[in-house]
């Protein structure tokens, strides 16, 4: 057998073997951050819990030990739709990998089972529901297991946002195969989720590796939502023309409408949500992974673990339910480490809508309270006047300093003393309640403050209230900002289908105990960050102009090669690798082999073609 795994199991020390695999199979000169410690720990048979941000390099943490240790690394992953691409990417490196999930027919499954039992597989990917089947247990016993890797381990947590009941079964791994080392990995975990992973997966004695969660190449920006379609168009045209991106919407309907709107404006986009039939969904996901510069408009059903390394932006047109969700979704941008943007618009209607979802959600009062806490944290992030990244990292328990690469750092928002405005708005809410026994949504309250004699005001004699017209010093959009901030600060609450407002305990302190209310000023329109910090065409932007034609030539070669083989372009080479080749212009196979991401297998397979493409006259 000439699998690279065999090469690695020479009589080298395990450290040497790990480096050898890293260099020859993956084409990388050195481990990153904690990778080396994690790999050594696993190779030596230890259990590990690994928390690393998206793009941090989690896959190598189990792939290298799986190749170094005798036997097959068994990877449990909920990402069934991605297994084929993962296996293809490994095959391109010369690694023997297979998967078992519900998408296969019986023949395909039998063949993978045969290869596993015969000891031919370095890695076997399994859908979690497989592990419930006794037949899977028997199958695993027929081969040798090098390790168990539990990917997206936060799926075991009911507190988190991606809960999968099948993950609860994963504790059987340790009971049935107590001597096989396990590694659980996730990119999102608060302290609470982390503890839940340890407890439910029985990882009490596992060594914990917590990497920094920062994604410095992602620029975070949150703007007030006015005309979301136009804002999105402006954002893409100005900053990310021709780039691949993900646009998240809450409802299927707005996904469809937004995708159509982009296409009408000449921006190629495909929709993705659970209401589309399986075929269309798979086709759209596959196009997104394979084509350069396509946009996918999606509900959160899309994208967990999307491996595409060159997603240049993630846009949210609706408010995510939690900071964890937001961080994971935005984390799909810039896995290759190149500049990328996380951009969101949010408005009052989002708060009303989310609140409605919480009230209508199944589960008990405690569960709803939990959802509300998630929402509160998200609102606080939106309305913060300090660095967004610092707040995000703090949410995951990591201290940090102002980052210089988020909207609040780049254009610090003005703050003002909003106490009087808050008092006006709160007292309008209170008077309607006390004097009339009525509750209203923000729109009507603001109309009263602005002194608008519209039919609804006249019908209910609201122009006779003492608060009528006391708020003409602020514009309508500014009042909406005030309401949002009062909600974010917990001074107001919103309920029901119509989003009616009520005062909280803390809100009463503003009216009766002189509590101050600092606020951030609503910008007329959101400022654009400086050009240098933009992600636009990042892959090309940082290359010297002279190298750009070479890079483009290599990209064309990659596109046609990927198409021929029916794999995503990044499976052939990542952008980062092509950039390095374009910059260094290697003249021989051995020089090419020294480029990051060019391992033995890819060198043998593509080396001559790449050198030929380089030699071509432009
Ligand atoms: P994660 O699963 O944590 O999101 P990946 O495993 O997909 O991250 O790795 C992210 C990117 O970093 C990939 O393009 C991968 O090839 C690259 N990478 C990982 N480890 C290294 C390393 N030691 N040296 C160079 N590149 C690496
Ligand atoms: Zn910042």
Automatic annotation (TrEMBL):
Pfam families: DEAD, Helicase_C, HRDC, RecQ_Zn_bind, RQC. Its cofactor is Zn(2+); Mg(2+). The lineage of its organism: Bacteria, Bacillati, Actinomycetota, Actinomycetes, Mycobacteriales. Residues 544-618 form the HRDC domain. Coiled coil: none annotated. SMART domains: DEXDc (SM00487), HELICc (SM00490), HRDC (SM00341), RQC (SM00956). Its EC number is 5.6.2.4. Residues 228-379 form the Helicase C-terminal domain. Residues 39-207 form the Helicase ATP-binding domain. PANTHER family: ATP-DEPENDENT DNA HELICASE Q1, DNA HELICASE RECQ FAMILY MEMBER. This is DNA helicase RecQ. It catalyses: Couples ATP hydrolysis with the unwinding of duplex DNA by translocating in the 3'-5' direction. SUPFAM superfamilies: HRDC-like, P-loop containing nucleoside triphosphate hydrolases. GO terms for molecular function: helicase activity. Keywords: ATP-binding, DNA damage, DNA recombination, DNA repair, DNA-binding, Helicase, Hydrolase, Isomerase, Metal-binding, Nucleotide-binding, Zinc. It comes from Nocardia jiangsuensis. Belongs to the helicase family. RecQ subfamily. It comes from the Bacteria. InterPro entries: DEAD/DEAH_box_helicase_dom, DNA_helicase_ATP-dep_RecQ, DNA_helicase_ATP-dep_RecQ_bac, Helicase_ATP-bd, Helicase_C-like, HRDC-like_sf, HRDC_dom, HRDC_dom_sf.
